[in-house]
């Protein structure tokens, strides 16, 4: 994680605004449980046509098209990126991409021009998307790719959702202090994104929770150093956080840089296990904001709990809070004095989907 990680979305605001206005009129502006479930198997066989143009035009009886990915050639595409490429730019209705079992060794990007994509696997142990890029890798132009472009899977579109699938960066583990070893498994740069029962696996900088509002529900996230980082406003509910640190590490690094910025990470009902000694959060941004509520924290949490990123001035501006957590790592006896044991009223804004304006885009 470095300055190279602080990427911005392409300048397509006008086009995207028109797309989303059309989608709102078509009733597609919510993510539902149906969007996260496997489509009917009937017709999803070799040679079956996929009508994605109706999604772009706002036509079609059910308003949902399905693209099947299968490595044996019995679907519409052998690769995940090939399926994403089949989604028409400017689509305004939900398109489901069903990924059949297999290990898909490829880098994948869902571009900003392709919102309303559902990526549905057939089990996190059966459907895996993996790549092994690191920040120090050299691209075709002779430059380092940087943290931002090291992602195995990158989401730049709005209203993306995924379920029952694993995203992995399989690059060798980065030792503490190593330079250029950041290796992102998943980058989320779109707004209004939901992941359900997904696994996100890596070591340093596993999940680049970059920008936007995101909801991760019942997901497994593995890493060692700052393995959830970025400037998004995200709710992690019922997630399993598993550390694979060999010495020290950290879970969350919030990049929030202004008191008026609404970003920050809220962990509710999550469970921390694994190895090493972990900070709950580090102040990547001057106004970093991270909250843990009702979490079960294993004994791998450092007694101090939190890190100021080596800048004492940040202790006056960060918001690091805990509310009704349990487990040996929840002990507050040696916590840094600038972290907060929250009252219910202080914790309440972070406890539910209201934190990410879920009433505006989730219908669950």
Q: What key attributes describe this structure?
A:
364 residues; mainly beta; Pectate Lyase C-like; 14-stranded parallel beta sheet; globular; disordered N terminus; hydrolase; signal
Can you walk through the features of this model?
The protein has helices spanning 13-26, 53-57, 80-86, 344-347; strands spanning 31-32, 65-69, 95-99, 102-105, 108-110, 117-120, 127-131, 153-155, 161-163, 166-169, 186-188, 193-196, 199-201, 207-209, 213-217, 220-223, 228-230, 233-237, 240-254, 264-268, 271-282, 289-293, 296-297, 306-307, 319-323, 340-341, 362-363. With 364 residues, it is mainly beta. The chain has a single domain, classed as 3 Solenoid (Pectate Lyase C-like).
- CATH topology name, in short, is Pectate Lyase C-like
Total strand count, please? 27
Low-confidence stretches: 3-8, 55-63
Percent of residues in beta strands: 25-35%
If you average the pLDDT, what whole number results? Answer: 90
Helix content: under 10%
Set down the secondary structure blueprint:
Layout: H1 13-26, E1 31-32, H2 53-57, E2 65-69, H3 80-86, E3 95-99, E4 102-105, E5 108-110, E6 117-120, E7 127-131, E8 153-155, E9 161-163, E10 166-169, E11 186-188, E12 193-196, E13 199-201, E14 207-209, E15 213-217, E16 220-223, E17 228-230, E18 233-237, E19 240-254, E20 264-268, E21 271-282, E22 289-293, E23 296-297, E24 306-307, E25 319-323, E26 340-341, H4 344-347, E27 362-363
Parallel strand pairs: 1-27, 2-3, 3-6, 4-7, 5-8, 6-9, 7-10, 8-11, 9-12, 10-13, 11-14, 12-15, 13-16, 14-17, 15-18, 16-19, 17-19, 18-20, 19-21, 20-22, 21-23, 21-24, 22-25, 25-26
